[in-house]
């Protein structure tokens, strides 16, 4: 997937609307912090299965969760671009095999 594709996607009206819908669904709170009984304002909507892996799920509400910046940074290895162990936990939570394949 090209960088341009992702760039255009994140600017699209469809994404902007969907993002707002997800934040509203999650009451503008971080879903990862919530697991630990904490309340943090969500600032980001995260693709549990990354956009480049499953572009078909880019607007699927089951693949989208609201996160705070701190938790979002913990989902991705910023050097390799891969999901971290924490990121993979969410994949398993929303998409147990064979959904993934
Ligand atoms: Zn958080």
Written description of the protein model:
This protein is mainly α and 101 residues long. Helices cover 44% and strands 8% of the residues. The protein is built from five helices and two strands. Strands 1-2 form a two-stranded antiparallel sheet. It has one domain. The mean pLDDT is 93. It binds zinc ion. Residues 30, 32-33, 40, 67-68, 70-71 line the site of zinc ion (ZN).
Question: Which helices and strands occur, and which strands form pairs?
Answer:
Layout: H1 3-11, H2 13-25, H3 31-35, E1 44-47, E2 64-67, H4 69-75, H5 85-94
Antiparallel strand pairs: 1-2
Bound molecules: zinc ion.
Number of strands: 2
Count of separate structural domains? 1
Please state how the strands of the largest beta sheet are arranged side by side: 1-2
Bound heterogens, unique = zinc ion
Question: What letter string, H or E per element, gives the SSE order?
Answer: HHHEEHH
Low-pLDDT stretches are none
Biggest sheet statistics: 2 strands, antiparallel
- Give helix % range: 40-55%
Q: Mean pLDDT, nearest integer?
A: 93
Which structural class do the helices and strands define? mainly alpha
Distance between the termini: 19 Å
């Amino acid at each position: 997937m090209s960088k341009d594709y992702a760039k255009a996607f994140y600017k699209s009206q469809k994404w902007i609307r969907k993002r707002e819908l997800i934040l509203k669904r999650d009451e503008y709170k971080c879903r990862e912090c919530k697991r630990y009984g904490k309340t943090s304002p969500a600032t980001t909507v995260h693709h549990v299965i990354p956009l480049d892996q499953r572009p078909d799920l880019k607007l699927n509400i089951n693949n989208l969760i609201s996160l705070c910046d701190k938790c979002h940074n913990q989902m991705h290895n910023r050097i390799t671009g891969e999901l971290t162990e924490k990121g993979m936990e969410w994949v398993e939570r929303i998409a147990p095999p064979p959904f993934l394949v």
